[in-house]
Amino acid sequence: MRQALMRLRLTQIAAQEFIVNGIRTLSQLRTLTEDALDRLVKQIHRDNAGVGAGLFIPFASQQYIHAIRFWANRMHILGLPYAADLVTLPLAETWNEIRKSEKEAEKVPTDLVKAPESYKKYTKWRTWKESVENYLHSKIGQAGIPLAYIIREHDRPIPALMYATSHDQLVDMAILNGPEFNTNNGVVYDLLQSLTLNGPAWSWVNAHQRSRNCC
After folding, report:
1. How many angstroms separate the CA atoms of 43 and 18, rounded?
2. Whole domain around residue 65: which residue ranges?
3. 46 assigned to some structural domain
Protein backbone atom coordinates (compact mmCIF):
# COMPACT_ATOMS: atom_id res chain seq x y z
CA MET A 1 0.00 0.00 0.00
CA ARG A 2 2.88 2.35 0.77
CA GLN A 3 4.32 1.92 -2.73
CA ALA A 4 0.90 2.46 -4.29
CA LEU A 5 0.54 5.77 -2.47
CA MET A 6 4.03 6.80 -3.48
CA ARG A 7 3.09 6.17 -7.12
CA LEU A 8 0.43 8.84 -6.54
CA ARG A 9 3.30 11.26 -5.78
CA LEU A 10 3.20 11.06 -2.01
CA THR A 11 6.53 11.08 -0.22
CA GLN A 12 7.50 7.92 1.63
CA ILE A 13 6.92 9.59 4.99
CA ALA A 14 3.48 10.87 3.92
CA ALA A 15 2.51 7.44 2.59
CA GLN A 16 3.62 5.91 5.90
CA GLU A 17 1.18 8.17 7.74
CA PHE A 18 -1.71 6.39 5.99
CA ILE A 19 -0.33 3.07 7.22
CA VAL A 20 0.05 4.43 10.75
CA ASN A 21 -3.58 5.58 10.65
CA GLY A 22 -4.81 2.11 9.75
CA ILE A 23 -5.10 2.39 5.96
CA ARG A 24 -2.94 -0.61 5.16
CA THR A 25 -4.95 -2.04 2.26
CA LEU A 26 -7.07 -0.83 -0.63
CA SER A 27 -10.05 -2.47 1.04
CA GLN A 28 -9.56 -0.23 4.06
CA LEU A 29 -9.19 2.81 1.81
CA ARG A 30 -12.31 2.08 -0.24
CA THR A 31 -14.51 1.83 2.86
CA LEU A 32 -13.75 5.45 3.76
CA THR A 33 -16.26 8.08 2.74
CA GLU A 34 -15.01 11.12 0.83
CA ASP A 35 -15.46 13.22 3.96
CA ALA A 36 -13.56 10.71 6.07
CA LEU A 37 -10.66 10.69 3.62
CA ASP A 38 -10.56 14.49 3.62
CA ARG A 39 -10.54 14.48 7.43
CA LEU A 40 -7.69 11.97 7.46
CA VAL A 41 -5.59 14.15 5.16
CA LYS A 42 -6.29 17.20 7.33
CA GLN A 43 -5.38 15.22 10.44
CA ILE A 44 -2.08 14.14 8.90
CA HIS A 45 -1.28 17.76 8.04
CA ARG A 46 -2.37 19.05 11.44
CA ASP A 47 -0.69 16.40 13.57
CA ASN A 48 2.59 16.83 11.76
CA ALA A 49 2.63 20.60 11.35
CA GLY A 50 6.18 21.86 11.41
CA VAL A 51 7.72 18.42 10.98
CA GLY A 52 8.74 19.07 7.41
CA ALA A 53 7.58 19.37 3.82
CA GLY A 54 7.72 15.59 3.41
CA LEU A 55 4.46 15.27 5.32
CA PHE A 56 2.55 17.68 3.12
CA ILE A 57 0.20 15.95 0.66
CA PRO A 58 -0.18 18.07 -2.51
CA PHE A 59 -3.72 18.82 -3.68
CA ALA A 60 -3.26 16.82 -6.89
CA SER A 61 -2.18 13.79 -4.89
CA GLN A 62 -5.22 14.18 -2.67
CA GLN A 63 -7.40 14.02 -5.77
CA TYR A 64 -5.56 10.92 -6.98
CA ILE A 65 -6.14 9.21 -3.63
CA HIS A 66 -9.84 10.04 -3.88
CA ALA A 67 -9.86 8.62 -7.40
CA ILE A 68 -8.25 5.36 -6.29
CA ARG A 69 -10.68 5.09 -3.38
CA PHE A 70 -13.53 5.56 -5.89
CA TRP A 71 -12.00 3.03 -8.30
CA ALA A 72 -11.45 0.39 -5.62
CA ASN A 73 -15.01 0.74 -4.36
CA ARG A 74 -16.39 0.56 -7.91
CA MET A 75 -14.41 -2.62 -8.59
CA HIS A 76 -15.73 -4.09 -5.35
CA ILE A 77 -19.32 -3.22 -6.31
CA LEU A 78 -18.82 -4.82 -9.74
CA GLY A 79 -17.25 -7.93 -8.22
CA LEU A 80 -13.99 -7.27 -10.07
CA PRO A 81 -10.45 -7.61 -8.67
CA TYR A 82 -8.51 -4.65 -7.32
CA ALA A 83 -5.13 -4.65 -5.70
CA ALA A 84 -2.49 -2.15 -4.62
CA ASP A 85 -0.05 -3.29 -7.30
CA LEU A 86 -2.57 -2.19 -9.95
CA VAL A 87 -2.48 1.40 -8.74
CA THR A 88 -0.70 3.77 -11.12
CA LEU A 89 -0.81 7.49 -11.79
CA PRO A 90 -2.55 7.02 -15.18
CA LEU A 91 -5.20 4.85 -13.48
CA ALA A 92 -5.76 7.57 -10.89
CA GLU A 93 -6.00 10.26 -13.58
CA THR A 94 -8.55 8.23 -15.54
CA TRP A 95 -10.74 7.51 -12.54
CA ASN A 96 -10.47 11.08 -11.32
CA GLU A 97 -12.15 12.13 -14.57
CA ILE A 98 -14.79 9.42 -14.17
CA ARG A 99 -15.42 10.48 -10.60
CA LYS A 100 -15.85 14.11 -11.61
CA SER A 101 -18.15 13.29 -14.53
CA GLU A 102 -20.39 11.16 -12.31
CA LYS A 103 -20.56 13.96 -9.75
CA GLU A 104 -21.70 16.31 -12.50
CA ALA A 105 -24.29 13.77 -13.62
CA GLU A 106 -25.72 13.74 -10.10
CA LYS A 107 -26.72 17.38 -10.58
CA VAL A 108 -28.96 16.54 -13.54
CA PRO A 109 -32.65 16.47 -12.50
CA THR A 110 -33.97 12.93 -12.13
CA ASP A 111 -37.65 13.84 -11.77
CA LEU A 112 -38.08 13.92 -15.54
CA VAL A 113 -39.12 10.26 -15.45
CA LYS A 114 -42.69 9.92 -14.26
CA ALA A 115 -43.25 7.79 -11.18
CA PRO A 116 -45.19 4.57 -11.90
CA GLU A 117 -48.92 4.38 -11.25
CA SER A 118 -50.20 2.07 -8.53
CA TYR A 119 -50.78 -1.52 -9.57
CA LYS A 120 -54.53 -2.11 -9.54
CA LYS A 121 -56.89 -4.85 -10.66
CA TYR A 122 -57.08 -3.74 -14.29
CA THR A 123 -53.49 -2.55 -14.66
CA LYS A 124 -51.63 -4.11 -17.58
CA TRP A 125 -48.69 -6.02 -16.11
CA ARG A 126 -46.19 -5.55 -18.95
CA THR A 127 -46.76 -1.79 -19.22
CA TRP A 128 -46.58 -1.35 -15.45
CA LYS A 129 -43.43 -3.46 -15.19
CA GLU A 130 -41.70 -1.37 -17.86
CA SER A 131 -42.70 1.86 -16.10
CA VAL A 132 -41.19 0.58 -12.83
CA GLU A 133 -37.97 -0.44 -14.59
CA ASN A 134 -37.66 2.94 -16.34
CA TYR A 135 -38.26 4.75 -13.06
CA LEU A 136 -35.62 2.69 -11.22
CA HIS A 137 -33.10 3.36 -13.99
CA SER A 138 -33.51 7.06 -13.22
CA LYS A 139 -32.94 6.68 -9.49
CA ILE A 140 -29.43 6.35 -8.08
CA GLY A 141 -28.94 4.48 -4.82
CA GLN A 142 -26.01 4.00 -2.49
CA ALA A 143 -22.57 3.62 -4.07
CA GLY A 144 -23.87 5.45 -7.15
CA ILE A 145 -25.73 2.39 -8.46
CA PRO A 146 -28.92 2.79 -10.53
CA LEU A 147 -31.67 1.09 -8.52
CA ALA A 148 -32.74 -0.94 -11.55
CA TYR A 149 -30.07 -3.50 -10.66
CA ILE A 150 -32.19 -4.65 -7.73
CA ILE A 151 -34.85 -6.13 -10.02
CA ARG A 152 -32.65 -7.53 -12.77
CA GLU A 153 -33.50 -11.09 -13.79
CA HIS A 154 -30.06 -12.67 -13.40
CA ASP A 155 -27.82 -13.05 -10.34
CA ARG A 156 -24.50 -13.18 -12.16
CA PRO A 157 -23.38 -11.03 -15.11
CA ILE A 158 -22.57 -12.51 -18.50
CA PRO A 159 -18.78 -13.07 -18.66
CA ALA A 160 -16.76 -10.72 -20.91
CA LEU A 161 -19.84 -8.75 -21.96
CA MET A 162 -19.01 -5.27 -23.27
CA TYR A 163 -21.04 -2.32 -21.96
CA ALA A 164 -21.78 0.93 -23.75
CA THR A 165 -22.05 2.91 -20.50
CA SER A 166 -21.07 2.59 -16.86
CA HIS A 167 -24.80 2.82 -16.10
CA ASP A 168 -25.44 -0.40 -18.03
CA GLN A 169 -22.46 -2.10 -16.43
CA LEU A 170 -23.57 -1.24 -12.92
CA VAL A 171 -27.13 -2.43 -13.53
CA ASP A 172 -25.88 -5.70 -14.98
CA MET A 173 -22.91 -6.41 -12.70
CA ALA A 174 -23.39 -4.77 -9.28
CA ILE A 175 -23.09 -7.37 -6.54
CA LEU A 176 -26.30 -8.49 -4.86
CA ASN A 177 -24.94 -8.53 -1.33
CA GLY A 178 -23.32 -6.22 1.17
CA PRO A 179 -24.47 -3.07 2.99
CA GLU A 180 -25.10 -1.04 -0.17
CA PHE A 181 -27.29 -3.78 -1.62
CA ASN A 182 -29.21 -4.17 1.63
CA THR A 183 -30.01 -0.45 1.69
CA ASN A 184 -30.90 -0.22 -2.00
CA ASN A 185 -32.97 -3.39 -1.82
CA GLY A 186 -34.98 -1.93 1.05
CA VAL A 187 -35.61 1.30 -0.86
CA VAL A 188 -36.93 -0.60 -3.88
CA TYR A 189 -39.08 -2.82 -1.66
CA ASP A 190 -40.64 0.25 -0.04
CA LEU A 191 -41.43 1.64 -3.50
CA LEU A 192 -43.05 -1.61 -4.64
CA GLN A 193 -45.02 -1.82 -1.41
CA SER A 194 -46.39 1.69 -1.89
CA LEU A 195 -47.32 0.94 -5.52
CA THR A 196 -49.15 -2.30 -4.74
CA LEU A 197 -50.99 -1.23 -1.59
CA ASN A 198 -54.54 -2.67 -1.58
CA GLY A 199 -54.06 -4.04 -5.10
CA PRO A 200 -53.98 -7.64 -6.39
CA ALA A 201 -50.23 -7.98 -5.74
CA TRP A 202 -50.39 -6.63 -2.19
CA SER A 203 -50.49 -10.00 -0.41
CA TRP A 204 -47.36 -11.18 -2.22
CA VAL A 205 -45.39 -7.99 -1.57
CA ASN A 206 -46.59 -7.63 2.01
CA ALA A 207 -45.41 -11.17 2.79
CA HIS A 208 -41.82 -9.84 2.58
CA GLN A 209 -42.41 -6.83 4.81
CA ARG A 210 -40.27 -8.07 7.69
CA SER A 211 -37.21 -8.64 5.49
CA ARG A 212 -37.96 -5.74 3.10
CA ASN A 213 -36.59 -8.00 0.39
CA CYS A 214 -38.01 -7.51 -3.09
CA CYS A 215 -35.79 -10.09 -4.79
Report:
1. 11
2. 2-105
3. yes
Same domain for 138 and 56: no
- Say what the alpha-carbon torsion angle 182, 79, 105, 5 is, to the nearest 10 degrees: 110
Instruction: Please choose, from the candidates 83, 21, 92, the residue with its C-alpha nearest in 3D space to the C-alpha of residue 60.
Output: 92
Q: How many CB atoms lie within 10 A of CB 45?
A: 15
CA angle at residue 102 from 3 to 164, to 5 degrees? 95
Domain count, the chain: 2
pLDDT in tens, the chain (215 residues): 999 999 999 999 999 999 999 999 999 999 999 999 999 999 888 876 665 556 789 999 999 999 999 999 999 999 999 999 999 999 999 999 999 998 887 777 767 788 888 888 888 889 999 999 999 999 999 999 999 999 998 888 877 788 888 999 999 999 999 999 999 999 999 998 888 888 777 777 776 666 677 66
The answer to whether position 115 is within a domain reads no
Query: In this structure, is residue 214 part of a structural domain?
Result: no
